[in-house]
Amino acid sequence: MNKLSKNKEYYTHINKTIVDVDKEIGSGLKILSKIDRKIVAVFGTHAILENDKIYKHCEETAYKLGLKKYAILTGGGPGIMKAANTGATRAKTASIGFKAGLLKKEQFVNSDIFTDVQSFKFLFTRRFCLAIKSSALIFYPGGYGTLNEFFEYVTLIQTGMTDPVPVVLVDKKYWNGLFKWLREDTLKKGFIQQRHLEGIYFADTPEEVLKIIEEKA
Fold it and tell me: Which residue from 3, 5, 105, 135 could staple onto 38, CB 3.0 to 4.6 Å apart?
């Protein structure tokens, strides 16, 4: 059994950890402070190819948002993230990538699709910067990372720790099982309330996504 060898690096070198965290958040906020338009953050799996219909959907959605003068912010990786940044670049809007520096599978993206890019060592600082100035959050299908981001952000909104912004889930069929469980089990047991599901929207087409964001963001 691993004895917290990776964790030990952070809690035994406290000053370095604090400095690194401060530097990452500061650099991220400086990039965000330059953006003079509403930001839409896009999340989803890195494990999807350019010929996949979801990839094409995401690129088109980001393109349409860019034409409406929204800036596009992603985790700076391949898959859904690359699709969103590519669409933003086509629309000639701000295209920002906040990369996960330690995730090797998320490094192979052409820097030409970014107007600004930063690499993060800590995922929690990255998640903070991805959402703190975003006027809307779009979630495409994804795995643990995408679900982690989704639940963190809706928790922050639920608890009033951040401003409420529209959360758009793309591909209703994909998200149906999760929300069936939330409504039929979690909600009925009183672990969440109906109002905690408000502000979460479902969409199947780029036009639906755009309509929700223009009306709610």
Answer: 135
